[in-house]
Each structure stands twice: as structure tokens, then as C-alpha cells.
Amino acid sequence: MPKVSVFDMTGKEVSSVELSDAVFGIEPNTAVMHQAVVAYLANQRQGTQSTLTRTEVKGGGRKPWRQKGTGHARQGSIRAPQWTHGGIALGPKPRSYRLALNKKVKRLALKSAFSSKVLDNALIVVDRIEMSEFKTKTMVGMLKALGASKKALIVLPAVDEKVVKSAANIPGVKTACVNTLNVYDVLNCDTFIVSQDAVAKIEEVYA
After folding, report:
1. Given a cut of 90, is residue 90 above it in pLDDT?
2. Is the C-alpha dihedral spanning 176, 105, 109, 2 positive or negative?
3. What band does 206 get if pLDDT is binned at 50, 70 and 90?
4. CA–CA separation, 198 vs 109, rounded Å?
5. How far apart (Å, rounded) are the C-alpha atoms in residues 207 and 200?
6. What distance in Å separates the CA atoms of residue 189 and residue 174, rounded to the nearest whole number?
7. What is the C-alpha to C-alpha distance for residues 30 and 122, in angstroms, rounded to an integer?
8. Sign, Cα dihedral of 186, 189, 190, 192
9. Cα(27)–Cα(165) distance, rounded to whole angstroms?
10. 3-7 and 152-156 as β-strands: parallel, antiparallel, unpaired?
11. What is the mean pLDDT of the chain?
12. CA distances for 1 relative to 22, 69, 165, 206, angstroms
């Protein structure tokens, strides 16, 4: 079982905790993590881009010149794609980019992401992450005390408005709850900061 130190918000080591092998100690599956990241990024796309075809561009109803005898190439409309201000041939139209992953793949990808953070020594467990007031300065102090890098993901067992809003203005810092975690955010952060209660909840859900 992986064993990690538990710190308080001032960066002082207070205890240690043994992590579940089934969640934090598996061999990371790179292919599955890649699949999950591709699906996540694809699902963020709105797919609302749209161009006008020759039938949708205003004008061009009359043949610009007669078919034969002018020396010009034959043309049927000034809104054909080869004309300036003409329609777009084979341009993008609204579509869904959604990719689906089955539950087992999602779970394996998340567990692989957790395990990779343990292997990289990028997981920091904090006994309690809580704020008495909305204060960005306090959050910055906690991150500095824990030696967190520029990109940090703070995981809470449940939504805590004071923690979420105190971290909201810090560049590169994101907050998430156990039930909203995704592979992209876990892999994209340099430091994975998890409260001890959140660790227990992650193990309960994914073990």
C-alpha cells in the first residue's frame, strides 16, 4: 500500500495515511488515460460553427452571362464557391463532437490518473481544507506552505464556497469535488492536493 504524509494548512506534517492499492497503487494505463482525455476535450466542444453554402448566400439567382460565345468560362451563378462572396464548399456545419466511454474505462482511467500522481510524488494530502472567511491570501499561503507548483488541483469531499471562491482568482489553481473529478484535470495539474476526507471518499467510490 502506498503511504503518504498528511500535512495541515500551514505545511506541517501531522500524520501519515496508507492509500488503497486498488485506487492509488495500480499500474497506470496510458492508453486508457489518453482515451479519456480525448473524450473529455471533444465533449467540451460546442460544435456550433457554421458556414453558408451556395444555396444560403444572398443573390446569384441570375446567370451572369450567356452560356456560349463570350470567351469566358461558363457560369451559372455568382454565388458559386469559386466566386468572391460565393458560398463555401464542404464547410463546417453544426454537429456533435461527443464521444462516449463506458463506465469501466472511465473508472480505470481515473484510477490510473490517481496512481500516476502517487508515482510522480505529486499527491499532497491535507488533514482539513477549510476557511473561516473568503480570503485569497490565506489560500495562497497554504499553497506556498505545501510547496504547490503553479498548476494545482484542490479536491474537496463536498462543495465549500469559502474555499472555492478563495482559490478562484489564483492563476492555475482549480477546485473540484470528488464527484466532479475528471482525468484531464488530474493529469493537467502539477500538484494534486486532496483533503483527508476526500481521500476516504475517493477510495469508497473507486475501490
Report:
1. yes
2. positive
3. confident
4. 18
5. 10
6. 9
7. 17
8. negative
9. 35
10. unpaired
11. 92
12. 9, 86, 35, 16
Instruction: Give pLDDT tens digits for 139-196.
Output: 999 999 998 878 999 999 998 899 999 999 999 999 999 999 999 999 999 999 999 9
38, 73 contact by CB (below 8 A):
no
Asked whether residue 132 carries a pLDDT value surpassing 90, the answer given is no
Give the model's pLDDT for residue 95. 95
Backbone angles phi, psi at 126, to 5 degrees: -115, 135
Strands 3-7 and 191-195: unpaired
Q: How far is Cα 78 from Cα 92, in angstroms, rounded to an integer?
A: 21
> DSSP characters for the chain?
--EEEEE-TTS-EEEEEEPPHHHHSS---HHHHHHHHHHHHHHT---------TTTSS---S-SS-SSSSSSPP-S-TTSTTSTT-PPTT------------HHHHHHHHHHHHHHHHHTT-EEEES----SS--HHHHHHHHHHHT--SSEEEEESS--HHHHHHHTTSTTEEEEEGGG--HHHHHH-SEEEEEHHHHHHHHHHH-
Record the cell numbers describing residue 146, joined without a space.
Answer: 505545501
